[in-house]
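Hey, can you fold this one?
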Amino acid sequence: MTPRMLDVKQSILGVNAAAAQMNRKLLDSHRVLMISLTSSPGSGKTSLLMRTIERLRERYRIAVVEAIAGSSIDADLIAGQNIPTVQIHASGACHLDAAMIRKGLAELDLHQLDLVFVENIGNLVCTADFDLGAHKNAVILSVPEGDDKPRKHPMIFLKSDAVLVSKIDVLPWFDFNLNAFSEVISDLNPAAKILPFSARTGEGMDGWFAWIRQSKEELNGGKDLQGAV
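Sure. Predicted structure:
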């Protein structure tokens, strides 16, 4: 039984990887940067997106692809910002996959965009296996969740380009050692950018915005091409 199960998983991931590569090629052809956001439920993905849209919408033309696992509350908040928003109903799945993202991108006018954010389903486990075709992957961990998550679920942190620590405004009230956490991440994934922030107070958000600008410059060959807004 075990060999057959592994074969099935390898087949599924192989098909997904091919679809993810097609997504990247499509985005590259339009010079659109796609960033995937992953976290546990309640870590602050939507709050981060709201702050990001508020700050960067005058610089970049932004769209969001939003996973809907149950309620559409978060997606409705994003859509209320008057930016292109595609809601993907995951139909009980614990993650998005590249084929779902391809359908979402088909609903967007990529000629009129600079940035696409994907807000994945709140899950740190199976989301790690599925490449969506994003240029950059960011994982968010909130202070109340504890600083031991990278040891419990290392794969998502190994595959992320940025590790964001949210809700740092409550650090004094939780047993979260930010220095120790940063050391663990540096051991697991030395290339990952560690970005502590608070969406509520705005502390640390400039580091996130700078990372987005740098990522856009990398895609554009060293130039930060602003959207026509």
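DSSP finds eight helices and seven strands in the chain. Let me know if you want another pass with a different chain boundary.
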